Amino acid sequence: MSNRKSKHNHPFWEKYLSSKYVGFDLDHTISKYHKLNLLTVVTTCIAKYLVNEQGYPKEVLGITFDPKIVVKGNIVDLEKGNILKLDSEKKISKALHGDTFLHETEIGKEYGENMILDDLQGFSNKKYLVVGTYFEICRGFFFNRLVLMRENGGLDPNKANQDFMLDLVSSVAYNFGNYDQGEFYPSVSQDLPGIFDDNSKDLKQLFQFLKKDGKKIFLLTNSLYGYVNLTLDYLLGSNWQEYFDLILYSARKPVFFQSNSQIPFIDEKKQKECSPKFHYPLKNGNVKDLMKFLNLEQNNEIIYFGDHPIGDIREAKNNFNWTTVSIVEELDQLNNEQSDNYSESIEKRKQFWGDYFYCNKKPSYWGAILNQFSDYQTASLSHFLIDLKEFQKFGALEN
Ligand SMILES: [Mg+2]
């Protein structure tokens, strides 16, 4: 079934009509990437960090990214060194170690007969990496390769699996945690057309349509301001701030959405805490102060678009009952409509891991979270724009 099928009578549109604010995540929601290029840049940054800063052997630089090893929705077991796929009951359906899938009896031996990960809460911690973004795909991929490399005698045998992940977390902090450091941001800024899949025409039209419908638009992203500016200057132009009534960055989702978080909003220019305000970039913050500022209680006057099923969607829905729209690009891959070189490997990934949304005729762990916490699912903002136009043409008349 095509996700482009008319959806103008979907219950979501009633919520759309009553909403005042429409918010967006940045990475993979507003911005789309040429994924293989992005993943290649990220893995190169990680490899260089491991060799230059952590003393790993030069062979690590020769690791080339393989898109089938780790896919979104995988759980990386940091103790046992396995990459897992789970069903909606958290039962392991597949476990990859190095290049080899474990037999069911081996999975049973390692995880107990019921093969259920009872202690998984959906967040990454010392025991599990939950793969929800392309950055996490890279970390999971390197973890898998380093475990294999050690087992083949190419790395220090005393290095534990979790030590690899600690080094990978440091590489992320080094390359992505400070805009003036590392190689990631300079690499992206030198090749913007090679990294970003330019959807600027649709973005501008979508924002115009929303404004025409009386919506206030906001940005809520974990990205650093420097990266927000780099991305949106490229996609929307140097006046990009004018598209947004509120600009919230370095937001630390999912913590941002936790009702007990009291992390204040920061005026980074003045280096001090501040109250939320319109038309001014704000760092950090928390959902409770935001709702108070917008004069909204727990209700559905706010719609949020994000691609991370947990950090964006589950937490926004669970804690403050925001209306949620999941950007699920795999919906488009079902229709084979994407044509970049990462998507061309979709069949390989599917042969390796099975269907993204299903697992042994049950929803996959990831698919179940998407279904439970999304009010609406769409493959991209460009697809949503088509649905919105259709709603405005047909649905609004019926309401
Ligand atoms: Mg995102």
Automatic annotation (TrEMBL):
Name by which UniProt lists this protein: 5'-nucleotidase domain-containing protein
Listed SUPFAM superfamilies: HAD-like
Entry similarity comment: Belongs to the 5'(3')-deoxyribonucleotidase family.
Keyword Ligase: no
Keywords: Hydrolase, Magnesium, Metal-binding
Positions in coiled-coil regions: none
InterPro entries found in the cross-reference section: HAD-like_sf, HAD-SF_hydro_IG_5-nucl, HAD_sf
Metal-binding as UniProt keyword: yes
Lineage, top ranks: Eukaryota, Metamonada, Anaeramoebidae, Anaeramoeba
